[in-house]
Write a structure and sequence with these properties.
single chain; 129 residues; alpha+beta; 4 helices
Length: 129
């Protein structure tokens, strides 16, 4: 935070659900998958407050868990949707927005989001003179 003197909040997203570890995590250089409690502990160790910490992509959790339990590899190549799949892409984006807005953040998801806040800086009294 020293390089950013006005910094007060940071939004982080992390892979969640240690039970979902797969080839996808290795390929993309993930070091771990987090639980919300672990994310809160890390923030507390750094002296940050956590006013928001929740999961998202809840509807992907069960299929990812089954895939992980069966030892199936996840596809790692990302491709932009083509014109033929645009409608499907928009439908999935709508479903993921619904997932985030309507399902409780405590429900397991494949990712977690947290807002980390620095403690308020101590205010020095004005100098008299």
């Amino acid at each position: 935070a020293q390089g950013f003197p006005k910094l007060r909040r940071v939004i982080v997203t992390v892979p969640a659900g240690p039970s979902l570890w797969s080839n996808y995590d290795k390929y993309y250089g993930h070091q771990r998958r987090y639980r919300r409690a672990g994310l809160r502990e890390l923030a507390a160790d750094l002296g940050w407050r956590v006013p928001l910490c929740r999961h998202f992509f809840h509807t992907l959790f069960a299929p990812a868990w089954v895939q992980s339990r069966l030892g199936l590899a996840r596809p790692v190549r990302l491709r932009a949707p083509g014109a033929a799949t645009n409608g499907l892409h928009h439908m999935l984006a709508w479903a993921m927005r619904w997932d985030y807005r309507c399902l409780p953040g405590a429900l397991p998801g494949t990712s977690a989001i947290a807002c980390l806040e620095l403690p308020e800086p101590a205010v020095s009294p004005p100098a008299h003179g």
